[in-house]
């Protein structure tokens, strides 16, 4: 993977193009449904990541959707994943996003598709918007996997969907996600080779967490082949503590 593909400046350029293009719609079509899209919210139509995440979760068109009892989605954006999960039978969905417009956008699409009673959209900096006793069968984040410098200051909320300064959010997610699971629940993160896998593994190891590769998919993005990965986050046992990336060949994906 080239340094250009991993460049946070390139990702910020993509963010700027997405939020300012003159043909950006207020309503878009995906999976045979119409979706509201607010101006400062990540647009799934301009990036393959949402559709890949839908496939990873079994929510894409033509797939057999799983029936989780409860889902916590981090970074819900327009709400496509959270609303689709509710439509597929998930009884209780909490959709969190640090962008207040994204939380409002998710609520709009939950109402549009008749699942507002099952989708609770909240503005939250990661897990801060949760009550102490809440637990979920699935915690999922399609992450902003491009690494920005630790001191980077965001110009707007839209850029937060594209880059993570110093992987601060990733480290917090790895540390905290397992704490919000039901006894049989799973925590999953969607990552890609546009991100820094070595830094992610280091963050997992520092927090006594392990990452296990569950699925991957390579897609053509412009002139590049980008690998997308679905990783399970688990609490390390003493035996596995030195193997942060369990169940796969980490070197092959670095």
Automatic annotation (TrEMBL):
UniProt entry keywords in alphabetical sequence: Methyltransferase, S-adenosyl-L-methionine, Transferase
Origin: domain of life: Bacteria
SUPFAM superfamilies: S-adenosyl-L-methionine-dependent methyltransferases
Cited Pfam families: PrmA
InterPro entries associated with the record: Euk-Arch_PrmC-MTase (IPR052190), SAM-dependent_MTases_sf (IPR029063)
Coiled coil: none
Name under which the protein is recorded: Methyltransferase
Species assigned in the record: Microbispora amethystogenes
């Amino acid at each position: 993977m080239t340094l250009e593909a991993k460049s946070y400046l390139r990702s910020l350029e993509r963010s700027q193009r997405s939020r300012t293009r003159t043909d950006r719609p207020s309503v878009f079509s995906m999976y045979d449904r119409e979706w509201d899209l607010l101006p400062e919210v990540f647009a799934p139509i301009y990036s393959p990541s949402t559709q890949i995440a839908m496939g990873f979760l079994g929510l894409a068109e033509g797939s057999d959707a799983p029936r989780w009892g409860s889902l916590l989605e981090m970074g819900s954006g327009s709400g496509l994943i959270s609303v689709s999960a509710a439509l597929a039978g998930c009884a209780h969905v909490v959709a969190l996003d640090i962008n207040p417009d994204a939380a409002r956008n998710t609520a709009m699409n939950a109402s549009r598709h008749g699942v507002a009673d099952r989708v609770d959209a909240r503005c939250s900096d990661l897990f801060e918007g949760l009550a102490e006793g809440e637990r979920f069968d699935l915690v999922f984040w399609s992450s902003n996997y491009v690494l920005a410098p630790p001191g980077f200051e965001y110009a707007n909320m839209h850029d937060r969907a594209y880059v993570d300064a110093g992987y601060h959010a990733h480290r917090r997610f790895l540390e905290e996600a397992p704490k919000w699971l039901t006894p049989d629940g799973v925590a999953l993160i969607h990552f890609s080779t546009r991100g820094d896998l070595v830094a992610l593994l280091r963050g997992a190891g520092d927090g006594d967490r392990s990452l296990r590769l569950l699925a991957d998919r390579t897609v053509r993005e412009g002139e590049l082949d980008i690998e997308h990965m679905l990783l399970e986050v688990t609490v390390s046992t003493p035996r596995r503590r030195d193997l942060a990336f369990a169940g796969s060949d980490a070197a092959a994906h670095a």
